[in-house]
Specification:
The chain contains 11 helices and 10 strands. The chain is of the alpha/beta class. The strands form 2 sheets. Strands 1-4-5-6-7-8-9-10 form an 8-stranded parallel β-barrel, surrounded by 6 helices. Strands 2-3 form a two-stranded antiparallel ribbon.
Length: about 260
Amino acid sequence: MSGILEQIVERNRPALEERKRAVPYRELEAAAADAPARPGFAEAFRGPGVHVIAELKKASPSKGVIRESLDVPKLAKRLEEAGAAALSVLTEPFYFQGSMDNLRNAANTVKLPLLRKDFIFDPYQILEAKLNGASAVLLIAAMLNADEFRRLLEFAHSVGLDVLGEAHTEEELELAATADLAGVNARDLRTFSTSLERSAALIAKLGGCGKPVVAESAVRNREDILMLQAAGANGFLVGETLMRGDDPGSELGRLLRCS
């Protein structure tokens, strides 16, 4: 596990234990079982066209505050109207200033599939995602060994959630591709630099995986999308480019060439 991932996980462990004490596992499990079903996440990326996962993100460790005011219902509705295939909602509080409230508010506002974007290492977090309206969770190959990844993948499926598996390196591709969608993140976790060329090369290696492939991070314009699409990407997770815009819906429209 890289230094930043280990730091984030260790910062979040005590908060998770507090939530477990407040709501015991069995109680959360029962509540999650009664949660309304959401649209399937993986299905949103099958078929032709440009499928964008619009990310609701207030801040990040590398960029600090990205959007000072994150009005989740307003933004979620605007991005749905602008043509987002799905939404990614940051719920990690310490480094990304996210919250479960943001996920729940998005779920109460739009009908789009929703990804809980967080650092998942415990089945309890998957139950939280289900209860609060997620269609899918993210599993990061760089922070989980193969057994942990597969255990969490199977648990997510058992409660009706899809999984986006995330790879940053060629060594992580095989594990990420065992999920319902295979994601390639352009960010180097050691330096925080991004490279779409490196992303495209990794995406090309997933050509035979039979899963939707999602390009994550550093997508800024239509040309980036076309380059990654040519490499084999079916979906594009876009956060900062949208969140820095005065009107994220118009920014999304420009990426989709529909406004």
